[in-house]
Amino acid sequence: MPHPRLIRTTLAAVALTTALAGCGAYSAADTSAGSAGSAISAKRCAENKAAGTITYLSGYQYQSSVSILEYVAARKLGYFKDLCLNVDLKPGSGDTAQNTKLLASGQATVGPVAEQDIIQARANGIDITGISSYSNAGLEVLMTNKDITKLTQLDGKVVGHKGYVPATVRAMLVKAGVKWDSLKLVKQGYDPSVLPRKQSGLEALTGFLSNEPNQLKAAGHAVTVWKPIDYGVPSSLGAMAVNPTFAKAHPHAVEDILRAALHAYDYCNSSDEHIAECVGYAAELSGPTYDRKLNTTIWKTETRYVKGHPTPGQPLGGIDPKNVAGIVDMLHQFEIVPAGVTADRAEGWFDTSYVRDIYAGAGGKLVWPAP
Fold it and tell me: Considering the entire predicted model, what is its pTM?
């Protein structure tokens, strides 16, 4: 039975350097808007300048996902410059294990890493710190054709995946009463049309809420999307991690990276015109093959999902400790992390202070400009 792969604890430094150097970066020419230091005090501006170059590494290329598009927009709109931050953007390959190692080694400073992946990384000795999350509802889903009306109908059926069945999807199936050992798990490619075609007897396919279901809908294929959050399965969306050495040395810079990104999130999400503008920034970085229509749909889907599943008792970006504990329990259920990874220990791998300190008042208003 496939499980999410455990992150190995070592990787040659030269391989890490090559991996990051091979990514295209948005740093050669500062053509962003904004005015250096215009939204921050002189003292804090000097602190942020002293932090030097900050490398943001995306989760997957410059896809218009939450935790990616707002950082692209913050750079282009000049919000980082307003806060005296020198931020380079680099597109990640989609390999979470590699990204966590780049963050731990200091070759990247900050980037999207799901709460589950932060816990797995730390369990395997990879030193990164979780600093924010937009929601306890993750994007990993299971899709079926319309003839499947309850998940137990999948007993004994063929279920497709992209290398492994995500733990959240497996937890959902188990909670729904599916006989896990009866499933015929097969690796599929990245073409979701195999599901409506029922290729090789396929009855279900894993995917991401904002991606494959939207592709299938655009192609005229109606599918049912089963979401783990509807079964009480914990996850995360838009979670961010930072190199802990950098964070300890430059806590205000970490706060202000998040401040600028959240300010850009609000800007990009405020109107269809602003969405088009922000997606356009990502398209500029990505080249002529960038699918603006699909990426616009990705952004709208994910931001609606964040709005519909806010983190309980937290402002946008706040981390829910109960969710971290729930993820630990799920990882224990499938023996993905050892018993020594307790909820209390895992909570220590997340620092809620950075988000807390950039909001003010009972209503949780983002502080802009910075102190």
Answer: 0.91
